[in-house]
Amino acid sequence: MAEIVSLSQAVRQAIHDGDAVAMEGFTHLIPFAAGHEVIRQRRRELTLIRMTPDLIYDQLIGAGCARKLVFSWGGNPGVGSLHRFRDAVQRGWPTPLEIEEHSHAGMANRYVAGASGLPFAVLRGYNGTDLYRQETLGNGRGGTTIRPVTCPFTGEQLTAVAAIRPDVAVIHAQRADRFGNVQFWGITGVQKEAVLASRRSVATVEEIVDALEPRPGAMVLPSWTVSYVAQVPGGAHPSYALGYSARDNGYYLAWDAIGRDRAAFTCWLEENVYS
Amino acid sequence: MTSQAGTNHADVSELGYSADEMMTVSAARALRDGMTCFVGIGLPSAAANLARATHAPGLVLIYESGAIGAKPNGLPLSIGDGILAETADAVVSVPEIFNYWLQPGRIDVGFLSAAQVDKFGNINTTVIGGDYRNPAVRLPGAGGAPEIAASCREVIVVVRQTIRSFVERVDFVTSVGYGSGPGDRERLGLTGSGPKKIITDLGVLEPDPATLEFTLTGMYPGVSVPAVRERTGWDLAVAAEPELIATPSTAELDALRRLEGSDHDD
C-alpha cells in the first residue's frame, strides 16, 4: 500500500545517493517539484533516466546531482538546446556526465521490458544508425544495451534492447484517493511502465480525493504498485496537468537564457530552489 | 510574436514573404488530403498544420507523444502541448505509438527536420565535430526520428539549407536515409521506402532514381542554381529542367500567419 507523505519525506525515503532514478512524464505531467526537492536534498551520483531530459534534468544536471544520463532526446522542446546538459557533456561542468543514448522507440521498449519482468525487448530499430554502432562497437564494451537478435520463428534479424530497472520512478499525476490509488490521463507517456519497472516509486498529485471517479482513457496505478504519494498542487509546473493547468510555454522560452549561462543558472538555483 | 515552433519571417522580402515562409508552404504542398503523417516538431509541424488548414483538411497528424489525429488551431510549441491531446481522435501511450502505430508501417509519411543532412538523405541530430564522446557540439539526439525514418512508407525532410547543414557525409547517422547508396535500406531491413524529398528555404531536392543521390529538382522564384550549389557541401547534381515552384498564394500565407499568431502589422 502506498504511504501518503509529504514531498520531502517521499524524496528522503525513496531516493538515495547513487540511485538510478526515472522521472517520467512525456512533456505532460513532468514531476518538477519532486526534481527540485531532490536538488534541495542534495542527492549526488544519481543515474538519471528519462526519454526527454527536458528542463527538469537540465536543472538536476546543472545542480550537480547526476553522474550518468540515460535518455533519447535532450532538447528544450520547440526552443533549442538544454545548455546545462551540453555544458556537462562538452565541458564536464559542474561534474562530468556519462551518457547512454537511445531512440524513443528503444527507450519505450526498454521500460516495457522492465515492467514485464523480462531481460530485454525486441523491436525493428537502430539498424544502420551510429547509435547502434556506438553502443555495440564504439565504446569498446560491446552491446551493453543494444544487440541483434534472430527471430526463432522466422529467422528475421531484429534488435534487442536491455530492460530498464530503475531503483526509483517518480511521476506526477492528476489525482490519488486517500488509499493511494493514483489516476492520470491525457498524454500518459511511459509513466505506467516506469513505475512498474522500478523497485520503488513516488507519485506527486494535484489533489487527493475521497474516491477516484472513472475517466475515459485514464490510467490507474493501484495503491499496492506505488510506494509514496504526496499532494503537490502545481507540481508539474512549467509542464502541465491536463484539467488543472496549462503548459507554461513562456517559462520554457525564458529558460534558454537562464540555462545558457552558469552564473544565471546558479542564481536561479539559489532564488528558486534552495531558498 | 515570432514563433519559435515554426518559421520565422524576420526578413520578409519585397515579394511579401520570407524564405522560411516559402519553405513551409512548399513543404505543406507535399502532403495530400487523407494522408497519415507522423510529425516532428518545429518546421515539419508548421508545414503539416498549414496543409491541414489549407488543401488537406483530412490530413491525420500523429505526434510521438501519443496524439493520433490531433487538430490544433495554432502551432504547438512542443509535441506534447495540451491542445494536441484535447483535439486528438485518440491518445495512446508512448510504447504504443511506436510499437503499434509506427513500427508496422501504417503511417504514410514521416515529416522530419535535421541539423545535418547528406547527399543520401541520412540525418544527424546527435553530435557535430570532434568524436561522439567528446563532441564539438552536442545536439538533442534521436527522439523518434530513427524509427520514423525507418518505418514510415516515405519520409520528407524539411531543413534550412546551409553549407554546414548540407554535407557530403553526416558526422553521425542518427536516422538512415539511403545509407551509402542503392541497396542499403534493403540490406538493413528498413521497411519504409526512405526520403522522397528534402525541402529547403531555396528549393526542393529529390533522389536520383539510379544513384539515390539527392538532386536539385525545384527552385523558388529568385533563387539561382549557383546560389543553391554555394550552400551545398557536395557536388550537387541538378535536374535537366528544375521546376520553378509557385510563390505562396495569399490564402497560404494568411493561413500560415494565422497559425503562428502573427499579424505582420509592424
Explain this structure to me?
- The complex is a heterodimer of chains A (275) and B (266).
- Chain A is an alpha/beta fold.
- In chain A, 32% of the residues lie in helices and 25% in strands.
- Chain A has helices spanning 7-14, 32-40, 54-62, 83-91, 104-116, 130-138, 191-197, 249-260, 262-274, and strands at residues 3-4, 20-23, 46-49, 66-71, 75-76, 80-81, 98-101, 120-123, 146-150, 157-162, 168-177, 182-184, 200-209, 219-221, 228-231.
- In chain A, helix 8 packs across helix 9 (262-274).
- Chain A starts with a strand and ends with a helix.
- The model of chain A has no long low-confidence stretch (mean pLDDT 95).
- Chain B is of the alpha/beta class and 266 residues long.
- Chain B has one domain (19-254): Glutaconate Coenzyme A-transferase, CATH 3.40.1080.10.
- Chain B has helices at 19-29, 43-53, 82-87, 94-102, 145-151, 184-188, 225-230, 250-260; strands at 36-39, 60-62, 67-68, 90-91, 109-112, 116-118, 123-124, 127-131, 134-138, 154-158, 166-167, 195-199, 203-207, 214-219, 237-244.
- In chain B, strand 12 (195-199) and strand 13 (203-207) form a beta hairpin.
- Chain B is globular, with a radius of gyration of 18 Å.
- At the A-B interface, strand 6, helix 4, helix 5, helix 6 and helix 8 of A face helix 3, helix 4, strand 9, helix 5 and helix 6 of B.
